[in-house]
Amino acid sequence: MRIKVRIWRQDGPAAQGKLVDYDLDDISEDMSFLEMLDVLNEDLNERGVEPVAFDSDCREGICGMCGLVINGRPHGNTGGRDGEANTTTCQLHMRSFADGETITIEPWRADAFPVIRDLVVDRTAFDRIIAAGGFISANTGSAPEAHAVPVEKKRADRAFDVATCIGCGACVAACPNASGMLFVGAKITHLAELPQGQPERWTRVQAMVAEHDADGFGGCTNIGECSAACPKDIPLDVISTLNKDLRRSMLH
Amino acid sequence: MATTTLQKKKPISPMHSTIGLKLMMAVSGLFFVLYVLLHMYGNLKILSGRAAFDEYAHHLRILGEPMLPYGGALWIFRILLLLALVAHVYSAFTLWKGAGEARSHKYAVRSAAAATVSSRWMRWGGVALLAFVVFHLFQFTWLQINVGGEFSSPAARVVAAFGVWWLTLIYVVALIALAMHLRHGVWSACQTLGYTSTARARRTANAAGIVLAVVVAGGFLIPPLGILFGAIK
After folding, report:
1. Mutation for testing the A interface, residue in B109, B180, B188, B190 having most A CBs under 10 Å
2. Can you name the residues that pair with A74 across neighbouring β-strands?
3. Which CATH superfamily is domain A123-249 in?
4. How many helices (H) and strands (E) does chain B have?
């Protein structure tokens, strides 16, 4: 395959960035998107050009490290509207693109996720949200027997489904308001559905929403771009659960 | 790499959080939905003739008498509407500003996958509706804009005004804007209030938005279009 990539190049957090074009002549359609960038970087290294910085780790679609906005879509995801299931950037393959296509690659754009270099952004804001309340308090020493607390099947299923969120930040990148509500909603729902999450339920939602807003994410307008971009298909109804929990927390 | 530590700001209370503002918007918005349905019912009185329409307009003012003074019930409703408007507009502009600041560097390539046309027009459509409401008040409440002549009878005023094509056109455009605002707004309010925590409830809320949009815009359009095309005299 011959493709042209337009990539956001930025030397550092404060540097002015710009889109730079690169031509790639020998790309296999069986390569993953990140392998295509590896090929580009090897070529840039040989030519003495600074390689493109991008995040990746497991390359198995489960760590949440990679994330690129590809032709305006985070991870290239459209929520199945292009006939392909959602995935992470590392699990996206070049066969999804046409020969001769120009592909624009940008970093997540949100003031809460400042660009560190090229396509790498700082997602510490998500860690701060988790640290604010995305946990349960438990005594250390003797782990209780796992089956001691029964969990309703329906609740266990929902908690498990939303716990698949890998915190990649695609929801923020896709949101027209750069809101992190799908992420916060997934974490809130995950713990709110389980008995272990109940004691801290109302303080958790207030603390996590306060941290989310203080970090500079925007508000949710229920458009649904987040869910369409989510590699784990977290549904929009977690935001409803989040909203309801915050409303109920004010009465507690 | 080293992670950055944010300066701790004053914690945001739940009511002042983005979700708190959305709650304010949802509750005031649902009050507006109730209001437009009542307003639409009143407008449709013109189908029963001019006398019925005028009687309805008069009755709005003597509603609650003698417990309330003349126009008392109407004024209570107007004050509630004004409070709802302040809450709706304040929350909208605060969230709009916050959303703009949340992404100061825009994407070079933008591609929407899930956004409906209605959802994309919520903000500017809302501004257009606000401008229309002011125009509408000047015309039928403050009687400062007189299209088709001046009359003491509300029915005569309405029939004369909507016989003018460009005025009817303004109302058609405004009602399309209202329909779009309701289509996304009703669904969004249900989501904000936390009534859509299952896939089925989400579909129902979306359907409710579409049904309300069609019913309200359709109901409001019957009198002006009927008058313009001579079916209502």
Report:
1. B109
2. A69
3. Alpha-helical ferredoxin (1.10.1060.10)
4. 8, 0
**For chain A, which residues make up each domain, given as ranges?**
3-106, 123-249
User: Quick one: pLDDT at residue A251?
Assistant: 93
* Contact call for A246 and B20, based on CB within 8 A: yes
Q: What is the Cα–Cα distance from A244 to B25, expressed in whole angstroms? A: 15
Q: What confidence tens digit (pLDDT) does each residue in B1-45 have?
A: 565 555 566 678 999 999 999 999 999 999 999 999 999 999 999
Tokens 């780790």, located at residue: A57
B176 vs A139: CA distance, rounded Å: 59
Instruction: Give the architecture (CATH level 2) of A3-106.
Output: Roll (3.10)
What's the pLDDT band for A141 if we cut at 50, 70, 90? confident
Q: Which residues of chain A make contact with B120, given a CB cutoff of 8 A? A: 223
Which ipTM did the prediction report?
0.93
Dihedral of CA A37/A43/A46/A52: which sign? negative
The minimal CB distance from B17 to the residues A128, A177, A210 is found for A210
Q: In this complex, which of A6, A111, A244 lies closest to B194 when CB atoms are compared?
A: A244
- C-alpha A187 chain-centroid distance: 13
Q: Under a CB-based contact definition with an 8 Å cutoff, are residues B43 and B219 in contact? A: yes
A10 touches B at CB < 8 Å: no
The ranges assigned to domains in chain B are 19-88+116-228
DSSP secondary structure letter of residue B9? P
**φ and ψ of B39, to 5 deg:** -60, -40
Neighbour order of strands in the sheet with A3-9? A18-24, A3-9, A102-106, A69-70, A73-74
Residue A241 has pLDDT above 80, yes or no: yes
- DSSP 3-state helix, strand, coil percentages of chain A (rounded to 5)? 35, 15, 50
Residue A240 token pair: 């409803």
Is A216 in Cβ contact with B101 (below 8 Å)? Answer: yes
Q: How many whole angstroms separate alpha carbon B233 and alpha carbon A116?
A: 69
Dump strand ranges (E) for A78-237: 102-106, 115-117, 120-121
- pLDDT digits 0-9 by tens, B93-103: 999 999 999 99
d(CA A86, CA B166) in angstroms, rounded, equals 48
Closest to A227 measured CA to CA, from B24, B208, B202, B106: B202
Which positions 77-116 of A are in contact with B (Cβ < 8 Å)?
A: 77-79, 81, 104, 106, 109-112, 116
